[in-house]
Amino acid sequence: xxxxxxxxxxxxxxxxxxxxxxxxxxxxxxxxxxxxxxxxxxxxxxxxxxxxxxxxxxxxxxxxxxxxxxxxxxxxxxxxxxxxxxxxxxxxxxxxxxxxxxxxxxxxxxxxxxxxxxxxxxxxxxxxxxxxxxxxxxxxxxxxxxxxxxxxxxxxxxxxxxxxxxxxxxxxxxxxxxxxxxxxxxxxxxxxxxxxxxxxxxxxxxxxxxxxxxxxxxxxxxxxxxxxxxxxxxxxxxxxxxxxxxxxxxxxxxxxxx
Length: 258
Ligand code: PGA
Known about the structure:
The protein is α/β, with parallel strands linked by helices. The chain contains eleven helices and eight strands.
């Protein structure tokens, strides 16, 4: 992390977990133990039906609520989908875009790009995910693959909006598996992502963008991952479902900037 140039962000991704009532319980517990310090931004991305309960619960705090997906269209005949302006009106600040679990359901880089543009247009902070499979890592094509996902995902994002985008590097082989990338592996890819942003924009923009690591980040490994110079936070699945664990990860982000 480097707080001189960019924000540290600890974001939870609940995936398809918790009901609205469970959301209320989580938030009450979380608020009672939430660190007071302001060393990082805190986001919780929750299932769509939990957004109202989450937003209500964090009204008096600095926690930002996010969605886990959005549709790129403004409105219309898209049964079951949710537009970015609906998320904004419901009180969301963030939206996860292009998570590997959604890409596995058919979401393409073009879809991701359209959603990133729609999120920015609506004033949401997109958390754009990228990540390689185990086969790709073993074939030594990780950096090329990630560079392609970043370039395609950011197409048409103007210079003045790039700082608003958060990128999350989530190696697919590390998600929900208990297999975490080593701090060095994660740093190497996050550094390469910043280099891609530098090429697409300027070094000033690359320096200002927050790049998160995700994939079995937990209260035990968070400190070492967050100590890396190009890892500006975490996108946390499993460990964000337990208030104590999520709080410990937030506390792990309270370290001197490198
Ligand atoms: P995990 O999920 O922390 O449970 O591995 C991370 C994610 O998929 O965002």
